[in-house]
Design brief:
Number of domains: 2
Strand content: 15-25%
CATH superfamily of the largest domain: Winged helix-like DNA-binding domain superfamily/Winged helix DNA-binding domain
CATH architecture of the largest domain: Orthogonal Bundle
Strand order of the largest sheet: 4-3-2-1-7
Largest sheet: 5 strands, antiparallel
Distance between the termini: 85 Å
Structural class: alpha+beta
Shape: elongated
Radius of gyration: 34 Å
Amino acid sequence: MKHFAVLAAGSGPYWWSLWAKWYHDSPTAWRTSKSRNIMSETGNVSYLIEKIIIFTPATQSLARIDQPNQRIKLKHSASLCLLLLIQHRGQVVSQNELLEFGWGKNHRQVSFNAFYQSILSLRKSLLQLELEQPLITTIPRKGLIIQEEFNIQVIETPEESVSFTAEPLVPDVAIEELSDDTARQPLITTAEMVILAITLIICVLIMYPWQTSDNYFSGYITADNAPTDCQYYFNNDASNFSRHTAFINKNPGLCQSHKFIYITTYPESKKLSVLVCRSPMKNRQENACQSVYYPRYDS
């Protein structure tokens, strides 16, 4: 891997940009088969993110530049995903590419949940190190991206960071990671319980009026001296129907052929509601209605 040797020697951003372009244009299959080797061959390469955080691929770790000894160990797959996103800064990297690069030959066995948990843990680690802006952005239905405006510099890995990796790099096993993530999740989350409760309440609210609609609208009386093109009904618990009549006179266009209109209002209230239906509200028959509500109707 001569390209890494040139980079580690500190030949400058120009050579790095050439290597990045060559790497991006290379086949995806090559990236997948070489992803594990890249981690071991970047021993002298680290990335300084926003002049705050150091990411060292060789040790799969993150650390603040002012606290280099307090490192956060990343999952192997999460570290590879971050490496790929950094190497393609300013470009959208698809979920497929991240899976192939991060999990290698096992990527087809990785569920979306395992992938999501890996990226989530990566985001939490960056947040824990107090990076002001979210480094990784999700582009819906396309993939993930590190925006180009982020300041990411290639630096030589400090010696203490290299010595940090005392244990060998063990690739993630996709099936095991899926089992661990799944086991930690309850069968029904709190959010799902809330959604279920709301759904049940809505069903009750829908079914109850349907069961009692006959009784409710049986308390409406037929309006006298109303236009013949339609039929008006008034709530019979009003002390008088002056506001009902005034509303009809002001809105003659509401009366259309074969419409059944239910008006609810009270002399002492400014509220007024109108229900315009295709058929009378009775016999639990299918009906089509439109409602209009006036919170402050001045007759």
